Amino acid sequence: MATLSTTIRVQVRFSEVDAIRMVWHGNYVRYMEDAREAFGREYGLGYMHIFENGFFAPVFDMHLRYHQTASIDDTLLVTITYKPAIGGKLLFDYEIRRESDDALIVTGSTVQLFTTREGEFYPANPPFFAEWKQRYELSEQLEKSEK
Hints:
Layout: E1 5-11, H1 27-43, H2 47-52, E2 55-56, E3 59-66, E4 75-83, E5 89-98, E6 104-113, E7 115-116, H3 127-135, H4 138-145
Antiparallel strand pairs: 1-4, 2-7, 3-6, 4-5, 5-6
């Protein structure tokens, strides 16, 4: 089973930099969200699909590490990689690089937990998510890595 990953391109806009011409740190969170949406579209796990199956997947935990700065007109490559996990949660790692010199700008990770539409935490795999994992043989991959 191959790693589930996708990369998007982000062109840094003037409105995304601060007074010292660096990308404002909060915009990297937006870039990561854009990558999650692209991942969902590519692998059939978009937010609307989750919603249509009676669930939400809010971000529960997020970590970012800033390595270098980016500025106006830089093209950034934002790579998101799914990490298999037991139970009803989505784990992703992120890497943001500047395209021109391959400089590592930011690394990060997120944890999203499934909740019902009523806001109740759902610790097990929702049925649609269990099917999604099975489609990509993720349960099998996780079991092998734990042995």
